[in-house]
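Thread: sanity check for a docking pose with pyridoxal-5'-phosphate

Original post by kr_44:
Hi all, I'm comparing my docking run against an independent structure prediction. Below are the sequence and the ligand SMILES. Could someone generate the full complex and paste the structure tokens? I mainly care about where the ligand ends up relative to the chain.
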Amino acid sequence: MAGYLSESDFVMVEEGFSTADLLEELTLGASQATTGEVAAFFVADLGAIVRKHFCFLKRLPRVRPFYAVKCNSSPGVLKVLAELGLGFSCANKAEMELVQHIGVPASKIIYSSPCKQIAQIKYAAKNGVRLLSFDNEMELEKVVKSHPSAKMVLCIATNDSHSLSHLSFKFGASLKSCRHLLENAKKSQVDVVGVSFHIGSDCPDPKAYSQSIADARLVFEMGAELGHRMQILDLGGGFPGVEGAKVRFEEISSVINSALDLYFPEGCGVDILAKLGRYYVTSAFTLAVSIISKKEVFLDQPGREEENGPTPKTIVYYLHDGVYGSFNSVLFDNTCPTPMLQKDGDCSCLSHSPIWLWSKETILGAAPIQQQPVGPGGRRL
Ligand SMILES: Cc1ncc(COP(=O)(O)O)c(C=O)c1O
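Reply from moderator J.T.:
Ran it for you. Here is the predicted complex with pyridoxal-5'-phosphate included:
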């Protein structure tokens, strides 16, 4: 182990022991008296994150994964991913501080927001973070003044019209403006070292990756013509976080591999990376909430004839968490969480903070950690 995680960071459980089993035990142990006093809480299966990582390495062996910290910056997630050797994609100073605080070296951090505050560019310069993104001239000017040794990655726009979140509205230079940006960078003696894109999160069309990889090839050629040493291709995120996604990870990875073989064949000397968020964490987290109230409501059907019998009714359940809290992805990402009823009644719990589960099976199965298993052996809660 690289020393990011310690035994006190998680609860090790026996092979086969799941989040559902843990919740059942907590529910059984909780008394009626504690209901209502305890906040909603997450159980995170760190083993699920590890399994996702090995699946990624298997399907996309040429791609080096980075983790987009904004997606979930819980210390357990960051430490496990650091332990697995990932790099980190940070959108601001707070995220850079967070990963540096757990010991991640600056060489493994990308400051990936194309639009940055000058003070935060200076922070990156002072703390050794050299790889930065840009998509406009103003950023180049800021970097010339505040971080002259930066290595810049040009973020290009994508066709993200089918994706759930449209990042190219905010970020990404059009192909038309790339030559001009690359020329200006050269004039200002700013090193451009690569190209990045993000096809938008939860994209249902894997062809968006091949199109963007083809666009990136064009920009690589423009950059090389102008004397930039183009050596990094960053495929961004957009990979599904759950099993039942519209497009399976296997399908996406096979489209990406074919496009890479065509435009960036093995041996071309380009370091290919991706900045994944949802892929790593979505399915690992389970939120436990209590139902605090329920009521019967009539289904409003304008124009409905009274004589058609009784008005249909439904039951509305109220939870002690909502869209301004843990369910914000319902508003921002149109997600539709799947409820699972805990069969033993109230779901009051014993903890206010996240509970990190890690199965013995996962630890022993994870190659980089295998030589030195954590802890004295599996402990069942
Ligand atoms: C610049 C950047 N890279 C990567 C990601 C991660 O995207 P995803 O969760 O789709 O993997 C995000 C998320 O919004 C992002 O803004």
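Residues 346-352, 360-381 have pLDDT under 50 and may be disordered. Hope that helps with the comparison, let us know if your pose agrees.
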